[in-house]
């Protein structure tokens, strides 16, 4: 069998052995006691992870994109206008989803590598009335982390619904739902939770739930939160068969997150990002994302002259590490390195060491061992 590779793409992230182990547990009844207990605990943990006291948590078989659809379908009615803030590929996806559902929307797009500035949001809000504002927290294509807290400050007390796509952030970068006034945080299992892909995850404020109730019938069935609400409140009820083993794995992942503690987890993500970037800088690499917007969960790295995308990633794969290429206009120009979830310092060092071995074999000139030294200086200080 081929040797296991270290998955350093920006999601799915490496799955911790404890989570893998829970996946291999027998499939139990979706309304049986094991499932009921674990789902209840996972949902309670999820609320703690996003600092939400009163909202409703949902975990539904699907992926992040389903969670994006659910957020819009359950809070926006035809004829209501929404504002989408896009920091790249995934912000644009939100506007495509709005378009698919025939929702009126305006889009503010930042230059790739930068985020939409709070001033731009403020200007737009003064020009027109919006029922909701949607923003990606971290765009996984451009590596941009949006100034979410600043957006939230501007949006507070305006009576509109604030939806955050936290797919590449939730559980790794601070998001305080109640304190910041976020109405929906949507995410997926495969990134900062470090669980396998396959789940759409949302936490919905009381206000957003109230809006859903006022809307009456919506053009959705599986995606209708009101169909799921009784199951989330009492998991022994049936609506549609949940992905039992995925749910159990997700439960385990939430326990790992809470055992580490949120403050420690955010700090670890920040330190890993800093150390990996210090290592890469030492090798002469630069970053696609501009400085104030660099995300703690991934790095989008420019190729230096003479390094070819396909050859680099193939060789790095042989050395044991999988990274992702660029998307859309960045294809061939950058590689994307995920550093989120339950990554360990040893894995960070292994990744940099493999990178050095790859570069050596490609004839790239650098001081051997320098990236590891730079990374260790930060992680071991
Ligand atoms: N939003 C962001 C920020 C993402 O990174 C992704 C996936 N990379 C998605 C949404 C869509 O998630 P999925 O691929 O699970 O549908």
Features:
43% helix; 4-stranded antiparallel sheet; alpha/beta; 381 residues
Q: Could you walk me through the main structural features you see in this protein, from its secondary elements to its overall organization?
A:
This protein is 43% helix and 16% strand. The chain has 14 helices and 15 strands. It has helices at residues 17-23, 33-49, 64-75, 89-100, 118-127, 148-155, 177-180, 206-214, 225-233, 244-260, 262-282, 309-318, 345-361, 370-379; strands at 6-7, 56-61, 81-86, 104-109, 132-136, 138-139, 144-145, 161-165, 184-188, 199-204, 286-287, 298-302, 321-322, 324-325, 334-338. Helix 1 (17-23) runs antiparallel to helix 10 (244-260), helix 11 packs antiparallel against helix 14 and helix 13 (345-361) packs antiparallel against helix 14 (370-379). The model has no long low-confidence stretch (mean pLDDT 97). The site of 4'-deoxy-4'-aminopyridoxal-5'-phosphate has 12 residues, from helix 3.
